[in-house]
Amino acid sequence: MKVLVTGGVRSGKSRHAEELLRGYDDVTYVAPGPTTAEDPDPDWAARVAAHQDRRPAGWTTLETRDLVRGLGGSGPALVDCLGTWLTATIDAAGAWDLPSERVHELVGVQLEATAAALAGAAGPVVLVTNEVGLGVVPEHRSGRLFRDLLGTVNQRLAQGCDEVHLVVAGRVLAL
Known about the structure:
Elements: E1 2-7, H1 13-20, E2 28-31, H2 42-54, E3 60-63, H3 67-71, E4 77-80, H4 82-92, H5 100-120, E5 125-130, H6 141-159, E6 163-168, E7 171-174
Parallel strand pairs: 1-5, 1-6, 2-3, 2-4, 4-5
Antiparallel strand pairs: 6-7
Helix pairs in contact: 4-6, 5-6
């Protein structure tokens, strides 16, 4: 089972993703956010802690931007969320000010590696992402860059999934 769960902010998509893997005790929860041990972010740490508090005790949290590593285990994985992965990836590369084509190239290399890891994942995988096609994205260069890149990420990884679920106001629609 490979599922892409998408929806807007506070739509209930993370809870839905957790429910899809509720019967498993050995889930790796991949938190691909902006933090590293050398550069902690208190808001991100609070988000990860809130998710840990509601998950089963047997789930392991892996904070990494390396989605290939996160998907490389032998058990189930939940990646939450691709939007934070994308912004953290662009930040880590110092790429917000690069020409858009160059940023697309940098992200594209990591996206293809992630798609290959998804295809080879041994256990169930649930990917959580924001649906930018319906979302409000600021009309400036970085907003457009984020929207366009996340749309590409969502479409590419959806190709490797068995199902795509749209979550709106806690309601789930299987697409």
